[in-house]
Amino acid sequence: MRKRIFLKLLFLIVVVVGVSTAALDLLVRRSWEASLLSQLHQGLQDKVQMFAARADREAGTIPFQQLVSEIGKAARARATIIDRSGKVLADSEAQAEAMENHATRPEFIAAFSGKTGSDTRTSHTLGIQFSYVAAPTSFGAVRLAYPLSSIRADVRKVEKELLEASGIAFLAGLLVALIGAESISRRLRRMVVFAQEIADGKLSARLPESGSDEIAVLAMSLDKTARQLEKNFQNLEGSRQQLETLLNSMHDAVVAISPKQDIAWFNGAMNPLAAGRIAVGIPLIRAVRDPDLLQVVAEVLEKRIVKSATLYSVSPGRIFGMTSAPLPDGGVVCVLRDSTEIARVERTRRDFIANVSHELRTPLTSLLGYTETLMDESADSKAREFLEIIRRNAQRMSRLTEDLLTLARVESGEDRLQPAAVSANELLRDAQTSFSELAKAKGLTIEISQTPDAMVFADRDAIHQVFANLIDNALKYASGTKKIEIGATDRFGSLEFYVRDFGQGIPSEHLPRLFERFYRVDKARSREAGGTGLGLAIVKHIVLNHGGQAGVTSELGHGSVFWFRIPLAVVDLEIAEATANRK
Ligand code: ADP
Question: Which protein residue has the closest C-alpha to ligand 1 atom 14?
Fold first, then answer.
């Protein structure tokens, strides 16, 4: 397996070296053969020229037979002399008289025409292959014949030498290939081992490599990547530890839950809140038993929204405010804050206000009663004027204590709602009937502009109180106009009731704070109109107790629309009931 790269490389290099050696061998051999033959041929031609010159020179001085023997020996070839008729005069290797006429031999035909002629064929006389070369003389022609077998022997000898050289070259190439392939495959193997270490998470692995070839450049890049990865990982780990320390030092309990509703992470503050043992990986339901928490987690997991809830049964006698938010991995994180102390302080504050208001009620009633009696009996106009001021202020204080008491009750949930399915029409008609006289006195009419055929799950008296406060405000702040419109429209599972007036409207910067207690746009005007600054706060709490929402839109110079949403009876009966019961 590990040697695979080496074997492949080696095989490739062997093939390349083998093919190139063979090709080189073939080419060299061919060209060498061609050059050898042409050399031989040229040599023969030179020799035959000399032979012809000597035959011309020595004709008649020595016998031709002697001449051919000498020449044949010297040239290591067969020498032949013929006369013009083609008759063989002498031959170094055969009986001239026994030889047939040679005038038709191609080399002699050429020689008779005055040129050097040549031919290669099997000799009739000797029966072996010769390379013939003939040259003209004054009396005929001479010829040298070189046996091809000796040429072939020469060629074979050189071929053998060449083959040996190729073999040595091949072996040398193989050795170099072995060393090269081993070196490359060793470097590649080191890279494979390195990559496996990184894949196994061992980011401290390093790949030392120097050089400038592609493998070295690749190795250096991989090494740099590993260093960078390790550095990033260390930074990440550092941040994670910091975050963990931070979360562990918090008073709030934090728990992360996986998409499968198992505990994914929790901080130290979560330990005392767990029903049993809490550990990473165990199902949430085994660690926390609070049904509200489980329901909120399930909802956040499903809808991927941020949700808050108040938990009463995480720890006996304690109240927790919880916020749950979806995590990017599909899970949920919950932050639980112990709000028992805040709730206690809040309750004390509410009780105090309620008690003070309650205690003020009786003296104020008697103050009002006696003031009115005194007014009836007093004839002095100055005294009556002062008494009227006392009466107005006592009335104001009385309204204030009443509103404070109402607010304390709706805030604390002391006023348990009695919700039931009520027709929206009936609620609107009730409001219209109850306040039309009051409106008429101020020159206004109350019109019902939209009446959907729907049922809401609501406490009739509480909703009446909401309409009372909103219509009272409309009458106070839109005096001088003609009408007030009330109505309701459908809003995704809720019904949105509204009270619209066509008065001066409210500047937009005041709108976000309008429902806070004692928040007034114009204090003097509110006081003059008999306002306490608590009407809208009461509205907000009643609507919240119904599991709804309240709000306002307003346009300066055109009027305001105060609205509140209540769950529809058919859709959210159970939820509304559950919410209302808890209050
Ligand atoms: P108040 O007793 O002062 O009316 P509320 O809580 O009912 O107290 O209202 C708070 C403030 O909101 C008022 O003081 C007034 O400035 C403003 N407001 C309420 N209703 C209207 C309205 N219909 N038109 C203009 N201003 C309004």
Answer: 520
Measured from the CB, is residue 474 less than 6 Å from ligand 1?
yes
> Ligand 1 centre and the CA of 536: distance in Å?
7
CATH homologous superfamily of 2-153 equals: PAS domain (3.30.450.20)
> Is the distance from the beta carbon of residue 533 to the nearest atom of ligand 1 less than 6 Å?
yes
Top mean-pLDDT range of 154-168, 266-280, 507-521, 524-538: 507-521
**Ligand 1 centroid – CA 403 distance (Å):** 14
Establish whether residue 554 lines the binding site of ligand 1, counting it when its CB lies within 6 angstroms of any ligand atom.
no
More confident residue, 126 or 172: 172
Ligand 1 touching residue 468 (CB < 6 A):
no
CATH class in words for 250-338: alpha beta
Q: List every span in the chain annotated with CATH 3.30.450.20.
A: 2-153, 250-338
Nearest residue CA, atom 21 of ligand 1? 473
Q: Which CATH superfamily is domain 418-582 in?
A: Histidine kinase-like ATPase, C-terminal domain (3.30.565.10)
State if residue 559 touches ligand 1 by the CB under 6 angstroms criterion: no
What is the pTM for the complete model shown? 0.54
Of 400, 532, 536, the one to substitute when testing ligand 1's pocket (max ligand atoms within 8 A of C-beta) is 536
b (16+ CB within 10 A) / e for 47-60: bbebbbebbeeebe
Between the alpha carbon of residue 51 and those of residues 108, 121, 303, the distances in Å are: 15, 21, 116
Every domain of the chain with CATH number 1.10.287.130 lies at: 342-411
Angle (nearest 5°) at CA 248 between 242 and 250: 105
The answer regarding whether domain 342-411 maps to CATH 1.10.287.130 reads yes
The three-class DSSP label of residue 319 is coil
Q: What is the pLDDT of residue 528?
A: 83
d(CA 74, CA 13): 51
User: Which of the pair, 167 or 497, is modelled with greater confidence?
Assistant: 497
Identify the pLDDT of residue 412: 77
Contact in structure between 558 and 481 (CB atoms under 8 Å): no
Q: Which residue type occupies 295? A: Q
Q: What is the mean pLDDT of residues 517-525?
A: 89
Q: pLDDT > 70: what percent of the chain? A: 97
pLDDT in tens, 76-125: 888 999 998 999 999 998 888 888 898 898 999 999 998 989 888 887 77
Average pLDDT for residues 8-28, to the nearest whole number? Answer: 82
What is the DSSP-derived secondary structure letter of residue 283?
B
